[in-house]
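User: These chains co-purify. Model them together.
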Amino acid sequence: MAQDLSHLVLNSPEMAKSRQLPRILMILAVVLLGGVFLFPLWQINLDAAQFPGGLDLNIWIDRFSGAEGDDNIIQNVNILNHYIGMQYIEPDSIPEHKYFSIIAYIMMGLGLLAAVINKKWGYATWFIIMGILSILAVYDFYLWLYDYGHNLDPKAPIKLEGMTYMPPLFGEKDLLNFYVKSYPHWGTILMTLSIVFSFFAFLKSPKKLRR
Amino acid sequence: MIAVSVMLFLGSCDQRDTKSVVTGDAASQVYVAPGEYDEFYCFMSGGFSGHVTVYGLPSGRLFKEIPVFSVYPENGYGYSEETKAMFNTSYGFVPWDDSHHVELSQTDGEFDGRWLFINGNNTPRIARIDLTTFETVEILEIPDVAGLHCSPFITENSEYLVSGTRFSTPIPNQDVPIDSYKENFIGLINYVKLNNETGEMSLDFQIEMPGFNYDLARNGKGKSHGWSFLTTYNSEQAHTLLEVNASQNDKDLLAIVNWQKAVEYMEQGKFTERTTSYYHNLVDHSTGIAESTEMTKTRILHPKDCPDMVYFIPVPKSPHGVDIDPTGEYIVGNGKLSADMTVYSFDKLMAAIEAKDFADEIDGIPVINYESGVHGILLKPGLGPLHTEFDGKGSAYTTFFISSEVVKWDVEKLEILDRQGSYYSPGHLVIPGGETKKPYGKYLVTMNKITKDRFLPTGPELCHSAQLFDISGDKMKLLLDFPTKAEPHYAQALPASKIKPNSKKFFKLEDNKHPYAALGEGQARVERDGKDVHVYMTAIRSHMAPDNIEGVKMGDNVYFHLTNLEQDWDVPHGFAVQGAATAELLVMPGQTRTLLWQPIKPGVFAFYCTDFCSALHQEMSGYIRVSPADSDVPLKWGLDDEMKTAEVKK
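Assistant: Joint model of the two components:
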């Protein structure tokens, strides 16, 4: 139906091409968003003398993982954390790991819908929702990190006055014997690109034609 | 007489300064910088320790002692319920042996880094070590032999391990006069078949042989694949004062076995079966538990009934090693009391067999004419040749025990190329891959039998000494002395890259099928079954669960089943309990090990982790309370003041 409409409105080939560009950009944005299922969103690397190469904790949209071949990263991080009274990371108890995927699928569906509709308002809406969701997700991640770093067991074997153990959200930091590096991983980078592409879809989408 | 002549020789030997031979940049050649790795793994037998030790080359650093035939309280091997069965033999539980010859598994005549085999001399056994875990996983007893020195020697695709009896005995063993040796004593050559997938050993057949002493062996490779070569001494068949009476014949015999032919005879059913007893002890890799099976039948081939299977050829006086060059053509017989060394040609041996060029026959076994099989004689290379290895570049290296040196010589041309003193009295020597089709001719290590003044003295008992030579050039160059544990006889070495990538870091907990494993702290518990109390205990940094146990009574058998819940590299936990008259346990991550503890008096006894595991290792401990037999203290256990109560099994 959309094609029929464009045929009526746009009669030159150049016009038809430029009419398709935002749609292509939006479809690419959806494909890039799919990257959140293929790559971790964030990576925290814990480096200490006893751990050659450091421990990698990869945070995915729906799970955790370690470096290649390391299936035990959560247990090993928990063992380290219990000395200073940090809570156990229990993957099953993190609700975001369940509903973030659903949100991502919905956003991919809405993105395709926006491409089908191919209207400026559609791209704008998608861009704004996705942007807000991303900021919320990073804020949510920050809250988790804050909670893990500050909500310490009063019976912890090692207690240092005034010391908290929140890993950096973005950047590097010394935490006792560990040097902690925390940076976005490919999942987040692709998601950001997806948002950028949707913004360009919005930009390249022609203004409403006044007849 | 020989002893006297040896003394005379040593006395008159040139008094060279044994300290001045190191030249140039030897130190940098053996220096492995912190954080870097050695180029080769070297596995040395432990001799009278019954163990295997693992060294790095060229540094000579000791990495590990692998317990094999001797119990090892250091980690509970032979004391834990899982490993006790490894020591079962037809002689009962035998906690010690004398281990001599290591043998790495091969594929296409090259070391493949999968398994390591080693013999037990005194109670004839062969063990298999898994090189992913560096643990002994199988021990097979060999029946009706004595002193399994001539063992285990592998074929080029790890089809078989050949071995021979060092001391012939009556078969079946029985009460006969010792001086009836010649009529009653029989030798055996044994073929142990290997499963190519699992490495599992099974005794396939034994060949009944004249009652000589079978000393060492090798299997052919390349063109000579399919044949085994075994040295014999005491062809005089002496039974007393062997040092003299077994040293009378000018030549002893080299046994040559066509084992592929023997396998054909087995398939044709040309064997007899004998009832005997021997044990096969195997670790189940899913539970980590060793189980023993008593075997009662052995299958025997008789050379008389099986033509073209076994031959002899004379070999100069009392040979020790027999070694085959990388091409499989040249077979070196090291006649230890002979002044010369004989090199046989496989092609000539085959031609002589084809032409039936025989001089004699012993018990139905043809004796090939000596001259017909000989490639040539290496004249006066030194005194007391014992063992030979090869560099893959046409040279052989032989140790000379009496003249205390290593001699490099050209196998084809039979020319001596170089000689270097080795201090003192080298026995075996090893070149990485030096007995295979593909030697890595860079280093040579001699294992010296006499140490004397090489290191700081440690009282009357000294360590043994090994010496590392650089053999990459024309002349051998001494690089390093290093001490070794117990008495290494043979060693084998291979590039680290063949083992390092496969080395297991820990056992996966999800694969642990031990019947008494507690795979999580929630499963930690204590169960009573009559007089047996089973403690399903877990260990994780830095506590054991349960760590308080009550309700154990005098007369109980307490089984501590400790499961290490860690899933990370290099986090073993140990377990020791006061009053244990046995040993400790070392438990690797993901593994379960069991210690039987029988309390000797009422009271409260501490247990603790023995392997410094973490910053709170010292806190990793607990108590077990023992009450009098008639006490009514209920069975309780707990962690962190949450005591649970037992359900008593009927």
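Residues 509-645 of chain B form a domain with the Immunoglobulin-like fold (CATH 2.60.40.420).
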